[in-house]
Amino acid sequence: MSKRKLKVSAIKEGTVIDHIPANQLFKVISILGLDKVSNQITFGTNLESSKLNHKAIIKVSGKYFEDDEINKIALIAPAAKLNIIKDYEVIEKKVVDVPDEIVGIAKCFNPKCITNNEPVTTRFTVVSKDNIALKCHYCEKITSEEHLKIT
Amino acid sequence: MKGKSLVSISDFSKEEILEIVKLAAEFEENPNQLLLDGKVVASLFFEPSTRTRLSFETAINRLGGNIIGFTDSASSSTTKGETLKDTIKMVSNYSDLIVMRHPLEGSARYAAEQSDVPVINAGDGANQHPTQTLLDLYSIYKTQGTLENLNIFLVGDLKYGRTVHSLLMAMSLFNPIFNFIAPDELRIPDEYKLFLDSKSIRYFEHSEFTDIISKADILYMTRVQRERFSDPIEYEKVKNVYVLRNSMLDNTKDNLRILHPLPRVNEIHTDVDDNPKAYYFQQAENGVYTRMAIMASILGLK
Ligand SMILES: [Zn+2]
What we know:
The complex is a heterodimer.
Chain A: H1 2-7, E1 14-21, H2 25-31, E2 41-48, E3 54-61, H3 67-70, E4 81-86, E5 89-95, E6 101-103, E7 106-107, E8 123-128, E9 133-136, E10 142-144, E11 149-150
Antiparallel strand pairs in A: 1-3, 1-4, 2-3, 4-5, 6-8, 7-11, 8-9, 9-10
Chain B: H1 14-29, E1 40-45, H2 50-62, E2 66-70, H3 84-94, E3 97-102, H4 107-114, E4 119-124, H5 130-144, E5 151-155, H6 162-171, E6 177-181, H7 190-198, E7 203-206, E8 218-221, H8 232-238, E9 257-259, H9 280-298
Parallel strand pairs in B: 1-2, 1-3, 3-4, 5-6, 5-8, 6-7, 8-9
Helix pairs in contact in B: 1-5, 1-9, 2-9, 3-4, 5-6, 5-9
Bound molecules: zinc ion.
Residues 108, 110, 113, 115, 136, 138-139, 141 of chain A line the site of zinc ion.
């Protein structure tokens, strides 16, 4: 336990996002806009995990996420868990939920969709949350999990 | 429905559909009403579709409106790389209404979001073509006297045919029974069957085009196109199977009418054309009255 903790240093105030699939780490960083903030951020990747093959973890100092904000990562990191830290203590744990609507982030699989041909922000209704299925607001086609690409 | 765009048939409620259908009948009765006098309608055809464009332009002219626009993207500024958004922003400053045909799917929804004036989708790729659906509904209403409780047979390409899918969704508001007749490769997709199940609407699937049509009120024929088949041998096998011939109509109901979105290839033999049950040419004409009704209604002039 203490050994694992040492891999990424502790934070005083902020959020720890755990159980991110290792190969999605940089996408999570980009979706949450963490590459554009001035907060102190530490991350570890290719860590051992009982649930995932290799997981990544991100610690963001001095930042708490709104549900809407954090749920954006549900598409690529559905098992992610959040630990809300105050004064080095975990005061709350949260899981992510797939939202009912996805704006941006995902790509429509239909090559003839307007969103793949003009600078249009994608918009989807989530028609299934277990096996992710997204209905495009524009072309009305359904993008299933196997065809899902994150922008 | 003043100020409302028409992008997808599902944008209109049952009441709004009935309103359009009844208004179309009124325009057919009295086609010369200069309701669009002094109005400018932009007709933007990013891909050519002579049939649809002429129908719209006739409707606009009959209503006394003025037309601006282009008939294919070669004569528009999109060839200079202008985005759809910029074209729509510009045109919506000049016009009271936009009629748009575009090869990309979802382009009409996007245009409607960008435009300050209502947009009528005249076909966005393989996605939607709601004015075709409304003219089909008007044709059904006119020939049957109602849209309720009809036995509708859909024949041919039920997999890719967008007119068939839109008609199915719209008619589902009126308690129909559906019969689907299609080759195996072109059967109606599961998502539509699930939709019908969820609405408790009865439907039957057949692969043989036989005398089961004796129960039909409406026989809606579609093209079976060669390019839809992965195996050309399959196409050769079915291309002459889903063809309607005059002799097949002997035991059909008197009120039966045959519809087809046109143009046809060989799926309706020309010997059907003189049968009073053939309705596809009048169906095309109904498009003008239906489009007059849609435009007048969206502009709040009726
Ligand atoms: Zn799309």
